[in-house]
Amino acid sequence: QVQLVESGGGLVQPGGSLRLSCAASGFNLRYDAMSWYRQAPGKQRELVVIIGTYGSTTYLDSVKGRFTGSRDNAKNTVYLEMSSLKPEDTAVYYCHSPRGGYWGQGTQVTVSS
User: Fold this and answer.
1) Which of 2, 17, 51, 79 could make an SS bond with 26 (beta carbons 3.0 to 4.6 A apart)?
2) Which of 44, 40, 52 is nearest to 97 (CA)?
3) What's the pLDDT tens digit per position in 30-85?
């Protein structure tokens, strides 16, 4: 059974940092590009970062320089390091495998003082 399980979300003050993890099971993500999306209340889901099979990354303009996507193929896990967080980063963050069409259940990130 294929699963993507996100963790690491929570409540953080503006300017703070969080690290999200997405652990895959049931498939080997080594051979797949992976991505992180987010969806804020009342808004469409948007692509935050694509992480290539060799670790290359492409970011949403509004997170460039603040977010870092990475992968650890040995752990079958991808990460999203978020710093200098802003209230507008508040959303549910989802891990996604484009090739397999798999989605995680999402993890809530709330940036508020």
Assistant:
1) 2
2) 52
3) 989 999 999 999 999 999 999 999 999 999 999 999 999 999 999 999 999 999 99
Direct distance between the N- and C-terminal alpha carbons of the chain, in angstroms, rounded to an integer? 40
* Banded pLDDT at 110 (limits 50, 70, 90): very high
CB 81 within 8 A of CB 8: no
DSSP conformation letters of the chain: --EEEEE--EEE-TT--EEEEEEEESS-GGGS-EEEEEE-TTS--EEEEEE-TTS-EEE-GGGTTTEEEEEEGGGTEEEEEE-S--GGG-EEEEEEETTTTEE---EEEEE--
Tell me the C-alpha distance between 88 and 76, whole Å.
Answer: 30
